[in-house]
Design brief:
This protein has 2 domains: 200 residues, Periplasmic binding protein-like II (D-Maltodextrin-Binding Protein, domain 2, 3-Layer(aba) Sandwich); 231 residues, Periplasmic binding protein-like II (D-Maltodextrin-Binding Protein, domain 2), CATH 3.40.190.10. The protein has 18 helices and 17 strands. α17 packs antiparallel against α18. It is globular and about 75 Å long. The relative contact order is 0.18.
Length: 443
């Protein structure tokens, strides 16, 4: 999407309508003169041991469509490669593992509108409803949902019990637990200076969103009651020195720290469990899965929004209908999920887009990580899936705003500014940035 299109975006609705016009909504079909099956190129940076069996199973069970899997090096490399081929209009793949928020990628003019091809599948109920919002922009679809991973808390129960601390049910409980554990030189959680996801997830869990798309303008509110509720939790954790600040940039060191017993509560998701099982040495078997702490008096909710929860269909894909058919099959069928099974770990890839995940829950739980608490994991995971909600709206400039949020977050965890000060700054930054792009905004 070029600068001219952005300048034309006078309002949120108008901005998206301009984008949709620029991106097209093609459902190109194979040339009538051509023969043989349609080939869909699928770009992914996931490990081949997970993707190759899925492609092979699809190809073995479909005659009219075939998948050609093209391994990508990583997320940033995929993003650059997609931008290059879309700009050139040549050799454009039809399915790509997501590398960013869909509305932002739509704003760049990178994606095809797949609504006409996708909606008939969505109406059949083959997707978890909470998997759908992340792949929409302006009420239109631009990717096939891959869904979300359920969120919960795992605690080092051995350390909790050693100091007589009760597992937290609310965020207030977690703060109280942190104050007690602090007396023994133990941190209740970790807040990495480069990762503001804790704040983002808390705002979502409280039912908030920093953006709302109105009829005539985007509404921006970083200081809503929901945001301030989330901010209060983070502020108490930071002000009372209850959290560690171990970076995610050195993964081995981070895992070793988690394993040490010096930090004892991890908000986590199912996809992270095998890594803990493989790398924990000192604390293997000491951890217990429990419900994600809640805001006192509120409905039980877990956040469902995920930035990378879709198979993108880039602009220039020549076979949109076939791409959607393949993407839907990969994310909603038992055959596809079963193809991801790994004999060494006895696990499947998490079927996060499906409404019924019960057949695969047990396989996500490692044998040793939770020790005597292993049997509790199934109930915790299923409760999280049922309670998941995605009320999060991503605005047209969220990519830049998130980068600014990361900078503010680093200052929050080092006590240079308060969370509320950061939110006030982000409010001003976001509104000013939208206005600079000639996008109508309230806030």
């Amino acid at each position: 999407m070029n600068g001219k299109h952005l300048r034309l975006a006078a309002t949120g609705i108008a901005a998206l309508s301009v984008v949709l016009t620029g991106c097209g909504s093609g459902t190109d079909t194979q040339d009538a003169a051509s023969e043989g099956p349609v080939t869909i190129e699928w770009w992914s940076w996931e490990e081949s041991k997970y993707t190759e069996p899925v492609a092979a199973k699809f190809n073995a069970t479909h005659e009219d469509i075939k998948i050609k899997l093209v391994k990508q090096a990583d997320n940033p490399g995929t993003a650059q490669n997609v931008r290059n081929v879309v700009a050139s209009g040549k050799d454009v793949p039809c399915l790509v593992k997501n590398f960013g928020e869909v509305p932002g990628l739509v704003g760049e003019g990178l994606l095809s509108d797949i609504t006409e091809a996708f909606e008939p599948h969505a109406k059949k109920g083959v997707f978890n409803e909470q998997a759908l919002p992340a792949v929409r922009a302006g009420g239109r679809y631009f990717a096939v949902p891959t869904g979300f991973n359920p969120s919960f808390l795992m605690i080092n129960r051995k350390v909790y019990d050693r100091y007589g601390v009760q597992p937290p049910k609310t965020w207030d409980d977690l703060i109280s637990a942190g104050k007690e554990l602090k007396k023994h030189g133990v941190y209740v959680m970790n807040l990495a200076g480069e990762d503001p996801s804790t704040l983002v997830n808390l705002v979502q869990q409280a039912g908030g969103s920093w953006y709302e798309q109105g009829e005539d303008a985007w509404k921006v509110d970083f200081l809503s009651p929901e945001s301030l509720k989330a901010a209060d939790v983070v502020q108490q954790l930071v002000d009372n020195d209850l959290v560690a600040n171990q970076t995610y940039q050195d993964r081995p060191a981070l895992i070793n720290y988690f394993d040490s017993g010096k930090m004892v509560s991890l908000p986590t998701q199912t996809w992270q469990l095998p890594n803990y099982e493989l790398n924990y040495k000192q604390s293997l078997g000491d951890w217990e899965p429990i419900d994600l702490p809640q805001f006192a008096g509120a409905e039980f909710v877990t956040p469902a929004h995920s930035a990378n929860s879709g198979l993108l269909v880039p602009k220039g894909c020549k076979h949109v209908e076939e791409a959607v058919e393949a993407g839907v099959w990969m994310n909603t069928t038992k055959e596809a999920v079963d193809a991801t099974y790994q004999k060494d770990t006895k696990q499947y890839s998490w079927p996060g887009a499906m409404p019924d995940v019960t057949p695969w829950v047990d396989s996500t739980v490692p044998e040793k990580l939770f020790g005597p608490s292993k049997s509790e994991a199934r109930g915790v995971i299923l409760k999280s899936v049922k309670a998941a909600k995605d009320s999060w709206t991503v605005g047209p400039n969220y990519t830049g705003v998130f980068a600014e949020l990361q900078d503010q977050w680093a200052r929050i965890v080092t006590k240079k500014i308060t969370v509320e000060q950061a939110l006030k700054h982000l409010q001003e930054f976001t509104v000013k940035d939208l206005k600079s792009k000639n996008i109508n905004v309230e806030g």
